[in-house]
Design brief:
- This is Cobalt transporter, subunit CbtA.
- The chain has two domains: about 1-40 and about 75-140 and about 200-235, no CATH class; about 140-195, no CATH class.
- The N and C termini lie close together (about 10 Å).
- The protein has seven helices and no strands.
- It is flat, with a radius of gyration of 19 Å.
- It is an all-alpha fold.
- The longest helix has about 35 residues, at about 200-235.
- Helix 1 (about 5-30) packs antiparallel against helix 7 (about 200-235), helix 4 (about 110-130) packs across helix 5 (about 145-165) and helix 5 (about 145-165) runs antiparallel to helix 6 (about 170-185).
Length: about 240
């Protein structure tokens, strides 16, 4: 089996399998908290309702002008949450498996687990230090500025971890640590005001649930990819 087909099949199985499991967890953890937070949106300042959802959860309407489409609560909204989570799983699985091939490929589930933890650090932990998960009706800075900082932080953290682990020299390790720290020293874009009707306890529960589900996502994704990759590669030997 060619390397391309191995990457594709491993990413598809690991990503879709992980996406289905994590989507089910989302439906019983983060989604109810989002629905609860939406009840506070009517009392929020109009400029403060721009926000992002937990990865994989379906979007909904915030302009309140009645013209934008939004999924209906229930099967439609939950179905889109499952779809987005599966697509997210497949996309991140492609990235993880392709990146691991640059170092010789995953040799087992334990190695896959380490790659998954690295993904969690790069795509959840480091960006979350500056931009923690947000609920509806929470204030936020300009979305384009937040996206640029998020992408830059994830890329710098991933590159920094690669230099520390695979650099094989103290100088490259120091450069890697500098890359990891740089986005945090620059700082994430912040809103002009932190006024929000969302109870602090509700936001705290959402942050804990989002980060925990993300950790499960990356551990499962890495472990599955690491378990599957040697089996698919053996067919091409």
């Amino acid at each position: 089996m060619s390397l391309f087909r191995t990457i594709l099949f491993v990413a598809a199985l690991a990503g879709i399998g992980t996406g289905v499991v994590v989507a089910a967890i989302h439906l019983f953890t983060t989604v109810p908290l989002i629905v609860q937070a939406e009840t506070f949106e009517g009392s929020a300042p109009e400029e403060a309702v721009s926000h992002e959802h937990a990865p994989g959860t379906a979007a909904h309407e915030h302009s309140h002008d009645g013209e934008e489409w939004a999924p209906a609560d229930g099967i439609e909204r939950n179905g889109l949450t499952v779809l987005f989570t599966v697509l997210t799983g497949f996309g991140f699985a492609l990235l993880l498996v392709a990146a691991s091939e640059l170092t010789g490929g995953l040799t087992g589930w334990r190695q896959g687990l380490l790659w998954g933890l690295a993904g969690f650090a790069a795509f959840t932990l480091a960006p979350g230090l500056g931009l923690p998960p947000e609920l509806p009706a929470m204030p936020a800075a300009d979305v384009a500025a937040r996206q640029m900082w998020w992408i830059g932080t994830a890329a710098a953290t991933a590159a920094g971890l690669a230099l520390v682990v695979f650099g094989r020299s103290p100088l490259l390790a120091v450069l890697g640590i500098a890359l990891i720290l740089a986005p945090q020293l620059i700082g994430a874009p912040q809103p002009d005001s932190y006024e929000t009707p969302i109870p602090e306890a509700l936001h705290h529960s959402f942050v804990v649930a989002s980060v925990t589900v993300s950790l499960i996502f990356w551990v499962l994704l890495g472990g599955l990819a690491g378990w599957l990759r040697p089996r698919f590669a053996a067919h091409g030997a």
